TrEMBL record:
The active site is at C109 (nucleophile), Y246 (proton donor/acceptor). It comes from the Eukaryota. This is GST C-terminal domain-containing protein. Glutathione binds at W142, R178, F179, T180, V181, E196, S197. GO terms for cellular component: cytoplasm.
Amino acid sequence: MSADEQVKFLPGMATPIRQLIIRGCSLASQRPLIAPSSLPKHSHSLVERSSFRTSSMTSTSNQADIGKMKLESDGSFKRAASAFRNWIQKDGEFAAEKDRYHLYVSYACPWATRTLITRKLKGLEDIIPVTVVSPHMGENGWPFASVDPYPGADVDPLFNSQHVKDLYYTADPNYAGRFTVPVLWDKKKNTVVNNESSEIIRIFNTAFNDILPPGKASIDIYPEAYRQDIDSINAWVYDTVNNGVYKAGFAGSQDAYEKAVYPLFDSLDRLEKLLTGRDYLVGDKLTEADIRLFVTIIRFDPVYVGHFKCNLRTIRNGYPALHLWMRKLYWNNDAFKSTTNFQHIKVHYYWSQTKVNPTRVVAVGPTPDIEPL
Ligand SMILES: N[C@@H](CCC(=O)N[C@@H](CS)C(=O)NCC(=O)O)C(=O)O
């Protein structure tokens, strides 16, 4: 429970009256509520929990606003770990069922786009519906279309939430982490199953195979035989490329910036060698290593070169093999093309990250967003 919300136990009452103290004024809710401490986590009824807190009630802008995010003392950016790490399993607590789970994403977010690509590759569109937020991530975090009707954004079909942060508080009123996408939601337990994209794509890879047609069930982006190679590429690609662009872009000192940007380009050079004459990073088929790299490379020229100062080279002019690999995935496989929305990508970074770009002016180039094959 935050400092803004308190549950009051009045003398002689079997159940407490919930009292919301909102910026100095107090509103007593007459609806009885079971003491939260006597319940297992996530066990409040949906209606009670979703009314616990709404976007307009409390100020969480230090938690929700990327512009107010604190850096380390040396000016470097450290990404916080994701909080919800449950797994969907055949006979587990979170069973693999149709019409039980819902995916919340932003087209702008590379981590969320990993999950969108995998959902599409595996043919999970009917099993796991998706809701897209507006790219304007502001002081309350990611808004739904009910608050910001941006083209391509959706309203929240489950709760009509205003912001993604409302979902997090519905799952856990004491949530103190960041309000990130993607969010994989469980409609049965009314909670977040998992908000870590690297795990969500592995869940999607296998968990629903029993209820998918054989052609989709047999698609395996993390095959046993290649796991060691995939894991080892993922490790340095994550640190220096996927997260490396953020470390360069969010750096608050010259030293922190240079410590990120040079290793980033060293890794791009290494990837260029790996991909020369090859269509895929590992073996001769598409794996999660390609998916995880693609979402960063597709954003590179449109956003990271300018906005994040990753400008030693561009992909289109500096890396012919990476450029070809990216264009083949995009133009030849609809799972990549249909989940890439350059408008959401560009508007989000340039508009939302006001520490990096206080004017919110969105750069017009490069044109085209992606070159033809
Ligand atoms: N570890 C998470 C990271 C997700 C993430 O950082 N998402 C960003 C958008 S690209 C976000 O929602 N940030 C909101 C915030 O940090 O307040 C994952 O891979 O799923």
